[in-house]
């Protein structure tokens, strides 16, 4: 159920683009209107119709991008400048817990919100939803995550998964150590 809802939200921008294209074509065909001036002569040359259709398509594309940004809660500054607010290296290193797996934590990184990531991971194969136990907003989040996984190698549940059987305090300490290591390496 949740997975279908997430897919439909992600498809909203595509659907808005298709609807806008259809609507702009219908307006051109039925009422001979697209963008101002609203009353276009019936016998414009083909290149004027093509230009009006191209402008309508551009407007539809811009509306679809705005719809996508609003649905996916993209910050205003990212919508305008098309870059993350603090750069591509900034993000969260998070620790998630699941009631179905007591004592096991998932350590990962994301450029978005840890709460959104926890919701994304709750699929049909997972018995209970993930909860955010701790998160750190930092630069070089992905590198810190990888270094944390290296520090906690002995506590890893499976070699190819990001799940660890350790105390939350030990995980926090490992993340802080990894952060110090990564920032020190970047300084040199």
Condensed summary:
By secondary structure, the chain is of the alpha+beta class.
Please describe what this structure looks like.
The N terminus is likely disordered. This protein has a four-stranded antiparallel β-sheet. The chain is built from six helices and four strands; from the N terminus they run H-H-H-E-E-H-E-H-E-H. It starts with a helix and ends with a helix. With 188 residues, the chain is of the alpha+beta class. Helix 1 packs antiparallel against helix 2 and helix 5 crosses helix 6. It has two domains: 80 residues, no CATH class; 98 residues, no CATH class. It is elongated, with a radius of gyration of 24 Å.
Number of helices: 6
Strand content is: 15-25%
Radius of gyration: 24 Å
Mean pLDDT: 76
- Please report the distance between the alpha carbons of the first and last residues: 49 Å
- Structural category: alpha+beta
Q: Can you give keywords for this protein?
A:
single chain, about 190 residues, alpha+beta, 2 domains, four-stranded antiparallel sheet, about 15% strand, elongated
Element layout with pairings:
Elements: H1 2-30, H2 46-71, H3 76-81, E1 90-98, E2 104-110, H4 114-121, E3 130-139, H5 141-151, E4 163-165, H6 168-187
Antiparallel strand pairs: 1-2, 1-3, 2-4
């Amino acid at each position: 159920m949740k997975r279908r809802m997430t897919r439909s939200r992600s498809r909203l921008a595509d659907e808005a683009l298709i609807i806008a294209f259809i609507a702009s074509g219908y307006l051109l065909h039925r009422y001979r209107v697209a963008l101002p001036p609203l009353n276009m002569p019936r016998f414009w040359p083909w290149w004027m119709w093509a230009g009006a259709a191209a402008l309508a398509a551009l407007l539809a594309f811009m509306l679809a991008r705005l719809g996508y940004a609003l649905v996916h809660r993209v910050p205003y500054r990212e919508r305008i400048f098309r870059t993350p607010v603090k750069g591509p290296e900034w993000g969260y290193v998070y620790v998630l817990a699941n009631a179905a797996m007591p004592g096991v934590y998932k350590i990962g990184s994301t450029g978005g919100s840890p709460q959104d990531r926890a919701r994304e991971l709750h699929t049909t194969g997972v018995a209970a939803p993930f909860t955010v136990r701790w998160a750190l907003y930092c630069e070089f989040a992905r590198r810190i995550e990888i270094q944390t996984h290296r520090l906690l190698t002995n506590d890893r549940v499976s070699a190819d998964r990001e799940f660890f059987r350790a105390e939350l305090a030990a995980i926090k300490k490992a993340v802080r150590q990894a952060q110090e290591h990564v920032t020190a390496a970047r300084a040199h």
